[in-house]
Structure formats: structure tokens, C-alpha cells
Amino acid sequence: MPDTYQLTELQMAIMRVLWDRGQATVAEIHEALKAERGLALTTIATLLSRLEKRGVVAHETRQRQFVYRSLVTEAEVRHSMIHELTERLFDGDLTAMLSHLLSEREISPGDRERIKALLDEKALGKEKSPHAR
Amino acid sequence: MPDTYQLTELQMAIMRVLWDRGQATVAEIHEALKAERGLALTTIATLLSRLEKRGVVAHETRQRQFVYRSLVTEAEVRHSMIHELTERLFDGDLTAMLSHLLSEREISPGDRERIKALLDEKALGKEKSPHAR
DNA sequence: ACCGTAATATTACGCCTGTAGTTTATTGCC
DNA sequence: GGCAATAAACTACAGGCGTAATATTACGGT
Question: What value does the mean pLDDT take over residues A7-16?
Fold first, then answer.
């Protein structure tokens, strides 16, 4: 298992199905993605076996069919990809990344409060205040 | 010119030299990157011509040599790449991305204050924070 | 024991990236 | 004016991705 998971758009779409359902067969994933993308079933199968080779998913055979499940959590992938991008763009400086996000976009007042709340929560951090959250 | 610029690590390294200097010859870029990566000069040249084909950089010939310059700003690339990742990971929800960043990492008290200040500034509709770096 | 069907495995191909060797063109110098 | 140096152009190749057609295999039924 590599410790960094860079997934492409299509790979993410497949993983999302797996995360949502816990596990799924090739046919189920194909079905789930049919709406947004008109991909052949074999395409999905190819992608899955490649992901398996990379150690991102695994399968078990259940009556003739492969049942895939993810070996990594969505949080791990997010972490990994954000980390990677922060490295690329800001030399690993998370706060620089944050500043960029904040200064670049409109943040609604509600979101703003939510973010400040998160910050405060983070500040208290260690000692779980009973009011927190 | 595409309106989305996804650059890889090496491409970023090259662009960074261009952004830092305004412009540079192949040899200069090669020299600048020699320390961190032992790449052949022709490798740099190949990358640059591919970037040019994509409309990311341009060159002018000055006494026998190509002088390259970037056609996009670092801010544009950051914007583009962050946008893309936010799309992939959070379906475009910037605030979700922010939350993730906040909840995932240690933020020093100083940074925390800095971020809150940014938020307040944003709240007042004050334009253009002095965005360092 | 066959055969059709369903599921996986194999093969293929174009495009992009990193990587760089080889070839060609130009130019300054003797 | 020819030649060495230099810079760019061309060619190459492996590996990953998206995409999928074709081949193989294993059941389940009659």
C-alpha cells in the first residue's frame, strides 16, 4: 500500500460508490455510474483491477462475481490529495492554502460563523469542553 | 488557452522559475533546477515546448536562444488547481474543503488569529487582503 | 454431457508525462 | 569559407489513464 493516493475523477467516482455502499460488484458500480457516464462494463472492470493492483481496493469472489471494497477511507484519500496539492502549490504550508481559499472566494456569513466555530473548537482542542459542538 | 491549468510537480517547478524571474532561457531553468533534480537539459526543453503547445508559456527568440515566459499567473494556476480538487473531493463545495483543512490539521494560535482576521476582513467586504507569498 | 450465458481476463490503442539520446541548423571564429 | 560549438528539433520509450472489444472460463439447466 502506498501512503499517497492520487485518484483521478473517474477513479473517485468509482470509489465513491464503494464508500457509499461498503462494497459492490462490478455490475452494481456500472449501474450506479451509468447515469452520469455512459461507460462500458468492461471499462469499470478494468479500472477496478488497476485500482486493486495499486492496493486501493480488494475483492472477494462471491458466487461467480467479484465483490469489491475499498481499502482506504475517503478521509485518507482527501487527506492525501490535499496534502499533495498543498505541497505542489504552497510548499506544504497548510495555512497558506487556507488563506488562499479564504481570500479567493465568497464565503457566506453562515459559513463564516461555522468556520470560526471550527477554529475555536480547534483552539480548545485537547480538553473536550462539554459545550463544544 | 484552456481555462483550467492542471500542472504536475515538474511542470510546477519549471513554472516557478518563470514566475520568480519573469522570464528565462532553457539553460537558466535547467541550471535553477539542477540542484533538486538531475534532469537533462533536453528534458527541460521538451517540457517547455509541451507547455507552450498547451498555451501555458510562450517564447521569443533572442540571439539564438529561446526566452520563455509564463502566460498564466501563479494565482490563476492555484485557483484552477484548487477549484479542480474541490470539485473532485467535495463536489465543488469550497466551505467543505475549508472545514476539512481546519479539522484535519494543527493550526497554530498565530495562524488561527490570522485566519479569523481574514474572515472578518472578508465580512466587511474589504477588498484584497495583503496576501503574502 | 452440452450449451448458452454471464463474468472475468486478455489485448489494444491513443494520449499524456517524464526522461533523454540523436539529428539538424546556425553562428562565431580562425 | 570551413569548422567546432551550441541550441533547438525530432525521435523514442516506458508507464499510467480512459476506453472498450474480444477471448476465455465456469455454471446452471435440460
Answer: 97
Question: B4: alpha, beta or left, given left = phi > 0 and alpha = psi -120 to 50?
Answer: beta
Closest in A7, A89, A102 to B118, CB measured: A102
Residue A131's H or E segment, with its range, is none
Find out whether A123 and B112 touch, Cβ atoms under 8 Å. Answer: yes
Measured CA to CA in angstroms, residue B68 lies from A5, B50, B113 at distances of 33, 12, 40
Does the CB of A66 fall within 7 Å of any strand C atom? yes
- pLDDT tens for residues A67-98? 999 999 999 999 999 999 999 999 988 888 98
Nearest 5°: CA angle at B5, between B28 and A33? 145
Inform me whether the C-beta atom of residue B105 falls under 8 Å from chain A C-beta atoms. Answer: yes
pTM, rounded to two decimals: 0.86
